[in-house]
Design brief:
This protein is mainly beta. Helix content is about 10%, strand content about 45%. The protein has helices at about 1-10, 20-35, 40-45, 295-300; strands spanning about 50-55, 70-80, 80-85, 85, 90-105, 105-110, 125-130, 135-140, 150-155, 165-170, 180-185, 190-195, 205-215, 220-225, 235-240, 245-250, 260, 265-270, 280-285, 290-295, 310-320, 325-330, 330-335, 345-350, 350. A hairpin with a 2-residue loop joins β3 and β4. The longest helix is centred in the first third of the chain and has 16 residues, at about 20-35.
Length: about 350
């Protein structure tokens, strides 16, 4: 009787996707794993547990996900058994979009409605996770662990949500660390603008607003497995009519470059080839008089042959020079950690006749 209860406890995760196939795979799993496991293995409580971390940026913001701010994620998990020396094509579900929450410093727990899950020794496990839990994500099993697909549809980057995902694969041996360690990676790109005033310029210059427009803002993401250098792919891009509008700024410029799009004003974009017509309107007050300059981001980005890449920061810089000429530089490309670098080649911006309000 105890064995029946234990079996239900372990294999009770949702089998509703491919019920008949999974029941057959579960039978194979019991056959395959029974030669290397025992009742004592499960009775010893070698349960599935999680730990998670995210790549931290040097600036703490209200929109960026870091190890400190990551409090929950949604996870899908499967295992495969060996059949005639090869891993089976049909996986058995362990977690099907289960929410995992941080319950303490370094401690994570899945919902009480999900039975506690245990490792089957000798089976190959795949875990795919995403944050935030509210995102429209789906998991599709593949023919092997490398082709298990996690996807997100109709993601709107203008909402300021930092989309991160992680994967973890391993063969269960019931030895060593039993924690599933998830290293989340940023799937979006950051865009920043820094500004300064030439030391020869007199007067006061205050940045009051920035609007970026002409970019792809809506898209779908998918990944058939993520390695250290793979972040999945984005397609079905659209939404060039949308804009990133940052208003209510009050940044007084000095000779030292200052970030205009940090803290709660961080701009996250879909990885993309910069479209023709991508621009930024920068509104500022010169000695109390409001003005707007328009930067042609497409032209300023001509050195970015691959466009924006995930988990990278693209920083554009401009300087207000004598006679209020504004010199705009080529973007520097940095990892999420804000490493500095890049060459600077100025180009002149023009002043718009009146401020433009794109909301």
């Amino acid at each position: 009787m105890w064995k029946q209860s234990k079996l239900r406890h372990i294999l009770s995760p949702r089998l509703n996707i491919y019920t008949a196939a999974c029941i057959a795979a579960a039978a194979l799993a019991l056959q395959s794993c029974s030669s290397t496991s025992s009742d004592d293995d499960v009775a010893a409580g070698v349960e599935l547990r999680f730990s998670a971390s995210a790549a931290d940026g040097s600036r703490a913001t209200t929109t960026l996900t870091t190890s400190a701010t990551l409090n929950d994620f949604k996870v899908w998990g499967t295992y495969r058994t060996k059949v005639s020396g090869s891993w089976s094509a049909q996986p058995v579900n362990v977690f099907n979009g289960v929410t995992v929450n941080k319950v303490g410093d370094g401690n994570w727990s899945y919902s009480a409605s999900t039975p506690l899950q245990y490792w089957f020794p000798g089976c190959y496990y795949t875990f795919r996770a995403i944050h935030p839990v509210t995102v429209n994500a789906a998991f599709t099993p593949g023919s092997d662990a490398a082709s298990d697909r996690l996807s997100v549809t109709s993601f709107d980057a203008t909402q300021g949500v930092d989309l991160v995902a992680a994967t973890h694969t391993r063969e269960s041996l019931l030895q060593g660390n039993t924690v599933v360690s998830l290293d989340f990676r940023h799937l979006l790109s950051r865009v920043d603008i820094t500004a300064s005033v030439d030391k020869a310029v007199t007067g006061t210059f205050v940045i009051t607003g920035i609007t970026l427009y002409g970019f792809e803002t809506v898209g779908s993401w998918s990944s058939d497995g993520m390695t250290a250098n793979t972040y999945g792919k984005w397609d079905n891009l659209s939404g060039r009519d949308n804009a990133y509008s940052v208003k209510g700024l009050n940044i007084t410029l000095s000779s030292e470059p200052q970030s205009l799009l940090s803290d709660g004003n961080t701009v996250l974009m879909l990885p993309q080839v910069i479209p023709v017509g991508a621009k930024a309107d920068i509104t500022y007050a010169e000695n109390g008089t409001e003005k707007t300059v328009t930067a042609d981001i497409y032209k300023a980005s001509y050195s970015l042959t691959g466009g924006y890449q995930p988990s990278r920061t693209y920083r554009y810089s401009f300087t207000i020079g004598p006679d209020q000429y504004i010199l705009f530089s080529l973007p520097t490309i940095q990892d999420w950690e804000d490493a500095e670098g890049g060459n600077y080649l100025p180009c002149l911006l023009y002043t718009s006749p009146s401020p433009r309000d794109r909301t």
